[in-house]
Amino acid sequence: MTKKDIHVFWRTLIITVVLSSALSIFPLALVFHPRSSRYIPINFSNEMIPTKSFTAGETTTEATVTMPTSASVSVDASEAANPETYRKEAKKYYPTFQDAIKAYSTSPDVGAHRVSGKVLQVENNDAAIAYYWCLSRDNILGLNSVFSIKKRGEYSNILDYGAFWAEANPAQSSYPISFAYTYTPDEAAAFYLTYQCLSVDVRSLPNNNRPLYLGISDSPAVRNLRILGKPPTRVIESTVKGKTYYIWIYEGLDIRGHLLDAGGFSFGNFNYGQIIDILHIHFVSSSDPLSKKVPIVVVN
Among 196, 177, 223, 197, which residue's Cα sits nearest to residue 31? Predict the structure, then answer.
């Protein structure tokens, strides 16, 4: 081996050791110095999500739906708010909503295990949606929904179009590197709103098409949340797995419409910081008169 070869060998060895150390140190750095979630880049353009329709012990053919960009949201929304859109997909009808839910629970494709009774149910003549606490396959706690379209007073098999999932702890959305990001209360609110903007129409159908958004907190101070200057419509207090959570609900507030009207915003490329700024998400003092008027309903 020549002198030059020896130099190349040692230089390569040193670089390899340094890079290996850096790669092992990086995850530790995130543990002790997690990043703010405010600047996490998010892009919904042209994403494809699977949609399925379930009956007892039977799964229908899988289809795909393109996540809308800002330009196409208004067109997609009119279709999503039409009950006939979902009646075309229904395969079977049941006498009660509970019967439809029970049939859905037997499907091997159900990915979350319910650990509570109904936390919230919204229903009208066209549709019904119910929310439960569930544990995911990764043992992560969150709220999950089941959606059914109605026809002549009966309830269709559960349709995945109204599916909703929200982790009780926003950081766990980054599982298995949940330690990598921190979420302040306003960042957590932005996190919950973001993913609901694309499915708010179908989930609001049972609410007479009044937009319905919700999020989760472990503090009753969530009554002090303000979005576009408004407090929550109501708060649900619910205890699950030995811990009490507060589910904040906004009804009738056109959050997505406000985002689409904001100059420079696009669902194709944004972050939670933009959501916070555009929607003026913040928390006020608990002495605020509006906070005291927000009802808290206990549901277990």
Answer: 177
Q: Comparing 80 with 111, which gets the higher pLDDT?
A: 80
The CB density around residue 109, as the number of other CB atoms within 10 Å, is 10
**Tokens 């395969």 -> residue:** 91
Identify whether 220 is preceded by a cis peptide bond (ω within 30 of 0): no
User: 269-273, long-range: CB within 8 Å, 24+ apart, which pairs?
Assistant: 269/41, 269/42, 269/43, 269/45, 270/41, 270/42, 270/43, 271/38, 271/39, 271/40, 271/41, 271/42, 272/37, 272/38, 272/39, 272/40, 272/42, 272/187, 272/190, 272/191, 272/194, 273/38, 273/39, 273/190
∠ CA 135-139-143, nearest 5°, is 30
Distance of CA 162 to the CA centre of its chain: 12
Report whether pLDDT(300) > 80.
no
Q: What type of residue is 265?
A: F
Give the model's pLDDT for residue 268.
80
The model's confidence at residue 107, banded by pLDDT at 50, 70 and 90, is low
Task: State phi, psi for 226 to the nearest 5 degrees.
Answer: -130, 130
Q: Where are the domains of the chain?
A: 1-33, 34-298
CA–CA gap between residue 178 and residue 169 (Å, rounded): 9
The residue whose two tokens read 């419409």 is: 257
- What is the amino acid identity at position 100? A
Pick the closest to residue 256 from 39, 53, 74 (CA basis): 74
Residue reference for tokens 């739906």: 65
Q: What is the pLDDT of residues 64-97, one digit of tens each?
A: 334 444 444 454 566 777 899 889 989 999 999 9
For residues 91-106, one letter each, b for 16 or more C-beta atoms within 10 angstroms of the residue's C-beta and e for the rest, the string is eebbeebebbbebbee
Which positions ≥6 away from 225 have C-beta within 8 Å?
185, 189, 231, 232, 248, 281, 283
Is residue 28's pLDDT more than 90?
no
Token pair of 215, please?
Answer: 């999020």
d(CA 288, CA 20): 53
